[in-house]
Amino acid sequence: MTRHSTPVEDQAGTSEVPASSGGTDEPSPDASGGHTGPTRARVSWPRWGWLPYLLIGAFVAFWAVTHIGAVVSGAGSSKAVGFGIAAGALTGAALVGVARLTRRGWAGQLAGLVPLVAAVAVAVLPSYVSSTVSEAAPEGLDAAAAPTVSTAPETSTDSSPPAGSSPAPPPPPAPAGPVEVATAQFVGIDHDAAGVARLIQLEDGSLIVRFEQFSVESGPDYDVYVVPGANASVPDGGTLLGDLKGTVGDQNYEIRTSALPGGGLDPVTVLIWCEVFDVPVANATL
């Protein structure tokens, strides 16, 4: 025996058959024998699916409290702020979009974790990764830094200088090894930093910048620049010496003479720069 739904009169005088509640995606018949659109299913969000988001949020909050300088520095960078906004937008889009497409909340929750975890891996995790290097100083640097005293015996000559004049001093002896041209302490810029930067000229006339007893707060994508002028905090007009070799330890960086303005007499800044977020980390003025 077939059961028929009883038409319901509405105020306009038309009749409709109530939509069946049995299937969420099945089209429901109307009074004329046609079909209406599919009934939209509600997405169920399992509570356990939010647990990873809570744990990641707690981890990021802990990082922000313990690295407040990096947070302040990033807040002043449009690149860092844009990165955070993009990461949040991608996380929300993946979470909601996949959940609606699949009608499964857990699938959306898993999809949303992909851009979120990637953002944390780029911006936060490098703060907990340090690297140590130990490069030797140029041979003879300490000996060359000491003053040179001549021990050659004095020789007498038959000729005497003209009256009223003194003999010209002998020219200074040529250095027999590397010479320290300048030195300065590293100063952190919204980051912790310590150590010394030394500008050293080698016997062949080439130059290196040497870090000694150096340490800096870890972070992503650090580069080393030499920038004209004192206390520079941006690399504009500077020369890239390369990636920072390590966050701890002694290290050497070759530098071209052309990178030193005024023939090496004008001040220059050794700048450690976070390339991925465009923020300064530390500097030393030589």
Kindly describe this structure.
With 286 residues, the protein is an alpha+beta fold. It is 26% helix and 27% strand. It has helices spanning 51-66, 68-75, 78-102, 105-123, 141-145, and strands at residues 8-9, 15-16, 27-29, 35-38, 132-134, 179-185, 187-188, 193-201, 207-216, 222-228, 239-243, 248-255, 268-274, 279-285. The strands form 4 sheets. It has a 5-stranded mixed β-sheet with strand order 5-12-9-8-6. Strands 7-14-13-10-11 form a 5-stranded antiparallel β-sheet, with no helix packed on it. A two-stranded antiparallel sheet has the order 1-2. A hairpin with a 5-residue loop joins strand 3 and strand 4. Helix 3 (78-102) runs antiparallel to helix 4 (105-123). The N and C termini lie far apart (98 Å). The relative contact order is 0.12.
- Name the quaternary structure: single chain
Average pLDDT number: 80
What helical percentage do the residues reach? Answer: 25-40%
State Rg: 36 Å
Low-confidence stretches are 5-28, 143-157
Shape: elongated
Residue fraction in strands: 25-35%
Characteristics:
286 residues; alpha+beta; 2 domains; 5 helices
Give the topology:
Blueprint: E1 8-9, E2 15-16, E3 27-29, E4 35-38, H1 51-66, H2 68-75, H3 78-102, H4 105-123, E5 132-134, H5 141-145, E6 179-185, E7 187-188, E8 193-201, E9 207-216, E10 222-228, E11 239-243, E12 248-255, E13 268-274, E14 279-285
Parallel strand pairs: 5-12
Antiparallel strand pairs: 1-2, 3-4, 6-8, 7-14, 8-9, 9-12, 10-11, 10-13, 13-14
Helix pairs in contact: 3-4
